[in-house]
Amino acid sequence: MAAKLDKIDRKILEQLQRDASQSLDVIAREVGSSKTPVWNRIRKMRETGVIKGETVLVDPEALGLEACFFVLIRTSEHDADWQLKFLETLRARPEVLEAHRLAGDIDYILKVLVPNARAYDQFYQALIEEVKIHNVTALLSMEEIKATTQLPI
Whole-angstrom Cα distance, residue 113 to residue 66? Predict the structure, then answer.
């Protein structure tokens, strides 16, 4: 169920998504309010789970993570034990930035970030060693055209 947010809450969220390190004074000025009400609204949004946490965005290339693969997985297994093992395997692999269960011909899609193709192959070999997978297709992203963590508010 969607949270009930007013115009000021949404403006605060836009500011925080843009730069969560901004001071309360700056955020208050940007949204047309004062510091204490802004702080109270942020606290309430944290308590209700609208704000899940804060993090730092790191440039992957600065860390040598230059290869992004989208991995399409088809499985012939759909029982609860297999799903649990698959989820545990994915959660244990830091290379997996995102994992989605899909409707349609493909069962899962993963976003995997690694230094190079050799590192992807090591990831792939480890994955198929741990869980039974019917078919895997890896697509190398040649260029990131758009990436954002900001939700449309």
Answer: 7
Listed residue (45, 7, 3, 40) closest to 24, CA to CA:
40
CATH 1.10.10.10 residue ranges of the chain are: 7-47
**Cβ 139 vs Cβ 89: under 8 Å:** no
What predicted TM-score, i.e. pTM, was given to this entire model?
0.88
* Dihedrals phi, psi of 46, to nearest 5 degrees: -70, -45
CATH hierarchy code of domain 60-140: 3.30.70.920
In tens, the pLDDT along 40-90 reads 999 999 999 999 999 999 999 999 999 999 999 999 988 999 999 999 999
CATH architecture of 7-47: Orthogonal Bundle (1.10)
The CB-side HSE value for 21 (13 A sphere, CA atoms) comes to 3
- Is residue 151 within 8 A of residue 16, CB to CB? The reply is no
Neighbours of 116 (CB within 10 A): 11
